[in-house]
Specification:
Length: about 450
């Protein structure tokens, strides 16, 4: 009996090993791939990083989609599902509250927004995004029998990749890096209970560093400094109020404060280096995951030659260097979200400067594994979707206005970053980079260095 159990366990181990090994990327030899206009060369270095060379750009981005799918297909599929609100369809509820997450993403209209952005891509970018999607889908079709192990364990197959999926992955990064509506909400709750003086202590307008150093070398030393020197006598009331709200606040948060992501970058002039050339460093801290968020790659076709980190599911290189310039990102995190209290009447209309209007209604259907579908109606006002359900006990109708919803303003000029040859071209590309806003450091082979804050910020009356 013991021998039989051992044999069964050994057999299961061998089966899992073979299934996992069969899904690994092919590292050597030739793969016949339909849809290419000319051969593409892919060379993996000692760390497994793919270096791709193609005769034309469409073949290059086709290959980027294909090779990224070789290494990261399940990550790509899960990313679009998590951002689009489609995870409960394949993940058991016993492993997490996927339905609640999907409901939130549907209310935030992530896929609806991605579809609108995808429809207005410029012709050049649409061609490259479509080529990337064709590469992903060709890999899926050629490997139906030995896709990554996760698909077999969960007993589902990935849907075809689309341009909208790539855009969805991109705006998911904006959601990750610019989450302000919760802060807006809780600050509003505090303002309802604290005096303006206490709110000024808790949310000071300015900083000691806004003022020049004093005679003793300290900052904030001159008369009239806006930063409170000793707010402690009044802060007891603030602490009491915070404790009263902490129970509600904790219900709406997950994770830990010590796990918060943070990034850094810097660039040093050649005047301060041994080589006489600039030094640029970038460390983009984002939430930990296996695999990591970024995917290192080199893309080369003619004069186009860029190395760095891509976002699996999207074409191009997001941060890195070409043969002339290098750049690095950290999050700028401007305030790009606002909450509006909407006034509804008994007819279900909401008040606008032009009178009472019916809100738009999105009819969403959430598929849940092992359970009936969930039907969800999302109310959308002129400001954005009504998200009151995100805050337990909230009776007001709160609409979220977010820069991402201004789809006519959204552009994706990453290709222009990849091809920029100097500071002027680089800044021109950044001037069209809507979201997420970033601190950008720059260096080039001619010895120039620079810094640019980029991204759109709402102008508020």
């Amino acid at each position: 009996m013991v021998l039989l159990v051992v044999l069964l366990i050994a057999g299961l181990g061998v089966a899992i090993y073979r299934a996992g090994h069969a899904s690994l990327a092919q590292m050597d030899g030739t793969i016949a791939v339909p849809g290419l206009k000319a051969p593409v060369t892919v060379v993996r270095d000692a760390q497994g990083v793919p270096h791709m060379t193609a005769a034309n750009l469409e073949d290059l981005f086709f290959a980027q989609g294909y090779v990224t799918a070789q290494d990261r297909l399940w990550q790509m599929d899960m990313t679009r599902r998590l951002v689009g609100g489609e995870s409960a369809e394949i993940l058991p509820q016993s492993t997490g509250n996927w339905l609640q997450r999907d409901r939130r993403q549907r209310i935030l209209r992530m896929r609806v927004t991605a579809e609108k952005i995808a429809q207005q891509l410029p012709e050049r970018d649409r061609r490259f995004f479509e080529a990337y999607a064709r590469g992903v889908n060709t890999y899926i079709e050629q490997n139906r029998g030995h896709l990554p192990l996760e698909f077999r364990v969960l007993r589902y197959a990935p849907k075809p990749w689309t341009v909208t999926d790539s855009v969805l992955v991109g705006i998911g990064m904006s959601q990750l890096l610019n989450p302000q509506y919760e802060t807006e909400y809780w600050r509003g709750k505090l303002a309802d209970q604290l005096s303006p003086e206490l709110m000024a202590d808790l949310y000071p307008v300015g900083s000691p560093r806004d003022h020049a150093p004093g005679d003793d070398g300290t900052v904030g030393a001159q008369a009239g400094a806006a930063w409170p020197r000793d707010p402690s006598p009044r802060m007891a009331s603030v602490v009491h109020t915070l404790r009263g709200l902490s129970a509600d606040l904790s219900k709406d948060r997950d994770g830990c404060e010590a796990c918060a992501a943070g990034s850094n970058n810097w660039v040093v002039s050649g005047a301060h280096t041994v080589s006489g050339k600039p030094l640029l460093a970038n460390d983009m801290h984002l939430p930990h995951g296996v695999p990591g968020i970024w995917y290192e790659v080199q893309l080369h076709s003619g004069d186009f030659n860029v190395v760095g980190f891509s976002l699996p599911g999207t074409p191009y290189v997001v941060v890195g260097h070409n043969q002339r310039i290098a750049w690095g990102f950290t999050n700028l995190n401007p305030d790009v979200q606002d909450l509006f209290v909407e006034n509804f009447n008994a007819k279900g209309e909401y008040q606008t400067p032009k009178g009472w209007e019916k809100p738009e209604v999105d009819h969403e259907v959430i598929h849940v594994t092992g359970r009936p579908d969930i039907v969800l109606d999302v109310l959308v006002t002129r400001h954005g979707p009504v998200i009151s359900s995100f805050f337990p006990g909230e009776t007001r109708r709160l609409a979220l206005q977010w820069l991402v919803y201004d789809t006519k303003a959204i552009t994706i000029p990453v290709f222009d970053l990849d091809t920029a040859q100097n500071w002027e071209q680089f800044r021109a590309a950044l001037s069209r980079f809507t979201t997420p806003s970033q601190n950008v450091v720059y260096a080039d082979v001619d010895g120039h260095i620079g810094y640019q804050a980029m991204g759109f910020v709402p102008v508020r009356a």
